[in-house]
Amino acid sequence: MFTRRERQAGRSAGQSEEPGPYWKQRSWQVSAGFLGIVFVVGGIAALTSGPGDQDDRGSQVTVEGPLSGDPAPANGRPRGCRTDDSAGDALPEAAPKDVEWRPLGVSRVPVSGTAGPTRIEKNLWWCFAHTPTGAALAAHVIPSQMSGSGWRTVAGQQVVAGRGRDLFEFTRATVQDTDVPDGSTPVASYAGFTVTSYTTEAATVRLLMKTDQGYAATAIALRWSGGDWKVLPGEDGSLHSKVSTVQGPGGFVLWGS
């Protein structure tokens, strides 16, 4: 367990961002499992796979679902969504005690009965606590849903609308879907996280990945929108920051899985 001061120190030390095109960087090549996640959520995905159906690119069709309408007026959450928000704005010092790990796409993701996602409906894992821990879980789960054929539903419901989402959908449509059969062994794992900034309306979460050759990290920006956390893409359509190598897990809350 790390103190908040130790986590802040870890963010400024022991990490490096490699120069040059990031799909050629060592941190993008250290693990096939890591690539399996970040390539499908990064703007460079089109350069690593053949073109798909051109008519499917950048679909502007509104995806109907629990997060597409106005939240219920009683609690500001979509109908049927309940979470434990009692932690308030306190940054997590440790992983939730009730976390269990479930396969999702090419990875395993943390799921908490209190912090979310508390609703799992086929292609959509949603309803996260309105807390820093809820934001951290959303940062793990939402991008991990993007490798399979249900990615359009996820993008339409759990990515903030705008130019960034349009570019992500345009690029993602060129990449072949990867639907992993139930019972398959996940090929990527998350090692830890840190919430680097938080307000009730926005959060930034750094994710730590453990690979065969060391550690790598990337950041996910989120917004509170429509009564749940959603990923805020960059202007280039990327759902995460550039990947950087890190010396070790210092400064991160470790999952211990």
UniProtKB/TrEMBL annotation:
Pfam families: DUF8175. Keywords: Membrane, Transmembrane, Transmembrane helix. It comes from the Bacteria. Residues 65-253 form the DUF8175 domain. The chain crosses the membrane at residues 28-47. Residues 1-22, 49-98 are annotated as: Disordered. This is DUF8175 domain-containing protein.
